[in-house]
Amino acid sequence: MGVMLEDVGKFDGEFLDAVKQSPKNPLKILDLCVAYGFTTKELLKTGADVTADDLSEEHLKHLWETVSEEERTRLQLLPGNAVELEFPAKSVDGIMACRWFNFLTGDKVRKVLEKSYNWLVPSGTLCVTAESIHSACFVNAYAKYVRAKESSAEDE
Length: 156
Hints:
The protein is of the alpha/beta class. It has helices at 10-21, 38-45, 57-65, 69-72, 106-119, 142-155; strands at residues 28-31, 49-54, 75-79, 92-98, 120-129.
């Protein structure tokens, strides 16, 4: 479980704008690792049909309880590990993956990117953002990170 920030950054904002302005309506969007669903709610505001994934069923239950009846008609909940999900090829118009790639190892990043490529329609868009240990939300963890990094360098 990571951090859910309730703000729209540059890249996810551009993705949201593209979804909202698309001539194809509604777009089918897969929102991965949504936590309590801030990005999902932003996607629903665009009119998109959204499948929201998270490891925590409790997080998804909270999301469901905090959206309108109309939004629920365009929302599907999908509990599970995003790395292990399976979807039909070319079945989604866009994928939003905000602030969780930084928790993956290289092989899992490649696996998610390959799956995403296969799930997207030919003109589909993948929006990936990741946090840095230098972000304000990690200020208290930075010293621990540096010690672990130095320790692992000594082991090499």
